[in-house]
Amino acid sequence: MRELIYFVAVTLDGYIAGxxxxxxxxxxxxxxxxxxxxxxxxxxxxxxxxxxxVSQTRELIDTVLMGWNTYAVGGVPSPYRxxxxxxxxRSRTAHADSLEVTASDPREVARGLKEEEGAGIWLCGGGAxxxxxxxxxxxxxxxxxxxxxxxxxxxxxxxxxLPERFALVENTVFDSGVMFSEFxxxxxx
Length: 189
Prior knowledge:
Elements: E1 4-11, E2 15-17, H1 33-39, H2 46-52, E3 61-67, H3 68-73, E4 84-88, E5 99-102, H4 106-115, E6 120-125, H5 127-133, E7 139-145, E8 153-154, E9 166-173, E10 179-185
Parallel strand pairs: 1-6, 1-7, 3-4, 3-6, 4-5
Antiparallel strand pairs: 2-8, 7-10, 9-10
């Protein structure tokens, strides 16, 4: 079965973006960038990866899920055209190759995708979609940056499900102060 992987940059105080969706305070340079581009190349926007000469193999992930605001931040019609892209919106539409906009229930979509053949499914953001999909998340990979936003879009917006437990499987700290922390869901029974 495929995994739903929530892979996201987050501040020390738990925000994935500022109040207006800004993310420019995240460190885009430093010793954490080479490992990011090596292991998580498929999470890079296609145009950026091509400009950097980074190969995108779709081995870790082959599908990306985004809320509309996360999709719109990039300002391009198909930011991850090397992947199957699914954008959730109840009122908007977009047309681009490998991009699907849907008003369907995100949990039902995620469950259906997990049953298909393929690589992992990347939950790119945002906080509201992450809260909706939290019960379906199998792996959580946080790129924790040594910054505080004070307010903004939280890692998970308020949700109403029972506490879920994750186990730490890897934690890498870089000289830049960025930490990659990877967790897997602890399944009962």
